[in-house]
Amino acid sequence: MNERYLFRGKNDGEWFIGSLHVCSKTNHHHIIGKFAGDEVAEINLVYNDVVEVDPATVGQCTGLSAIKSYRGSRPEDLLIFEGDIVKGIWGCGGYAFIVKWVGAGFFADSDSFAVLKPIAESPGIKIIGNIHDNRVEDV
To answer: Do the Cβ atoms of 34 and 18 come closer than 8 Å?
Structure first.
């Protein structure tokens, strides 16, 4: 599966990663699961692999991987998602940035800089948290 088309969302304190489905009638957001917690499974379009998630927590995978993550060292732990808090952005020292989709791409945004930095240009990114579980000033 191409990581670029993965999404993540949170339900009852647990993160789920997979394909995103938004119901046009109810606007409920669902993740059709690939990873849930520590279990890894291929996507199967059956009811048991679908979980409703909080729309405010949904973020798309950038398609890029970090060199280190607070989540762990498995390949899926190193994927960078919209809403992650990262360090190691090229030319920006040890400042923390939030990964955001802006216009036509993923950028690192920080109150410390007036310019958005494209994350694809930074090969040494470390994921240190996310905006749903951590405040930027706490990481």
So the answer is: yes
